Every structure is written in structure tokens, then in C-alpha cells.
Amino acid sequence: MSDAALIVLSDLDGTLLDHTTYAFDAARAALDRLRDARVPLVLCTSKTRAEVEPIRAALRNAHPFIVENGGGVCVPVGYFLFEIEGAERRGDYDVIPLGDPYADLTRALAGASEASGVDVRGFADMGDDEVAAETGLTLSEARLARQREFDEPFVVMAPERAPELFAAIEREGKRWTTGGRFHHIIGANDKAAAVRMLVGLYRRQLGDVRTVGLGDAPNDADFLREVDVSILIASPRVDRLRALVPGGRVTTLEGPAGWNAAVLALLDERR
Questions:
Q1: For the chain, percent helix, then strand, then coil, each to nearest 5?
Q2: At what angle do helices 162-171 and 102-116 cross, to 10 degrees?
Q3: CA distance 203 to 4
Q4: Is the dihedral of CA 240, 244, 250, 254 positive or negative?
Q5: In the annotation, is 11 catalytic?
Q6: Among 11, 18, 94, 222, which one carries the catalytic annotation?
Q7: pTM of the prediction?
Q8: Domains in the chain, ordered, with CATH?
Q9: 220-237, pLDDT tens digit by residue?
Q10: Number of C-alpha atoms within 13 angstroms, CB side, residue 68?
Q11: If 0-12 CB within 10 Å is exposed, 13-18 middle and 19+ buried, where does residue 144 land?
């Protein structure tokens, strides 16, 4: 096998975390193997920085992470041995902002809704209790999910008219993507651009690297096409994802169990 340093980049919901319970118990064996092998596990998610922080703590993960569909790259202060150009110090992280400010996105979504006549409800329109009901999160978790910086999740009240809304979003100069539960309005950012930037930082520090990506939804396709090895976690959406990432390996099991089996097999290949 190559001597290149291995970097694993993973989506969270429906991939490392169970889509319904958000548990990752079924992936503990692979998580332990990655930690023992000192392989960085980079979380690449539509979740907010506030949401990811307690998840990283539960995972005992100290590596950089990508939030809000590539809106920001968050690097623990001092992680790399060089200064990161364009980064802003936010709490314990050097954050590289790639997305549009949240206020711009909520204004654009409201404008697209009015122009198209298609009603939407975004997180900015919901209270913590409604977000909790829509997602299965606790109230405290929903509060973290609403601390957004670069991405607005929303539901279309008349799903059959979603294409009209999406066209209006594009006329507003913004982009949209679809995740496991929500649509999202975003700026010019995407997970792929964030992955390219972060992998570039790893190459600057480590030299040659080999990248592996894991995801389960269509909004993971762009970053899965960026990595050396793409692993598609089985889900009701996997056929759509396979069409977008035709070279990806598809797991037999769903969620963290599929994640666990795929990562263990990958690490076994390196022996």
C-alpha cells in the first residue's frame, strides 16, 4: 500500500450517526481503530459549529471539521504548524469562512419565496421546539442547530412546487442543496470546496495524503467526488447518490453499522 497519510472525511447524519437516534455506538470499533492508528477523522456536515462541538467531544475527536455544507472550515487553534491565511479566530478555532453570511441567506430565501409564491419554513422561522419536533433533537440540541453562520435549512410547504422555489433561489444569486431531512440555501460554498481547502492544508503539513470520504445523501456527492476513495452508506437515497458518484463503494448495512464495516475493511487493506 502507499505510504501516503490517510485522511478520513465523513458526513454525520445517516452516516456516522444513526439517522433516527443520532447514536454512533455501532461504529465504536472503527472509531477506536482510527484513533489508535492516528488517522485524522474530519467531520463534514450540514450541522453548525455549535452542534459539532459536543459530538466531537463524545467521539473524542480533536481534528478539524467542516460545517454547514462547506460554509466554514474549523481548525483547532495550533493544529497546523503554520498560520492559515484568511482564517478568523472564533472561540477555540481558526475558522475559514467560505459561505455567505447567514443574514444574507435568510433574506434571499424570503425573497425567493415571495417571488415564486412558494411558502417555506426555515430555521429562522422556527422556534427551538419546532426544530426539535422536525428533527427528533432535544430542545438543547435544537438550540445549537439554530446557531447558524453559513447555511439555512428549510422545508417547502408545497413540495410539488419546489422546482419553482429553487429557480427563484438561483435568481437571488444563491444555491440550494438537499440533505437527509431539509433543503438548504447556501452561497457559493459547497462541501467539495471545503474539502479541497482542508486537504490542501494537510498536504502542506504531511506531504502526500490519501483521502477517503463517507456519505449517504445527495448533498454529499460533491465532496465524495473529490476524494480518492468514496464510500456510499446504504440508505433509501443511495441509488440517487450512486448515480452521482458512480465509482463509489456501496455498503451493505445502513448508518453507523455500515460506516463501521467500511472503515474496518479500509484499514485492513492498509496492513
A1: 40, 25, 35
A2: 130
A3: 10
A4: negative
A5: yes
A6: 11
A7: 0.89
A8: 5-99+190-269 (3.40.50.1000), 102-186 (3.30.980.20)
A9: 999 999 999 999 999 998
A10: 32
A11: buried
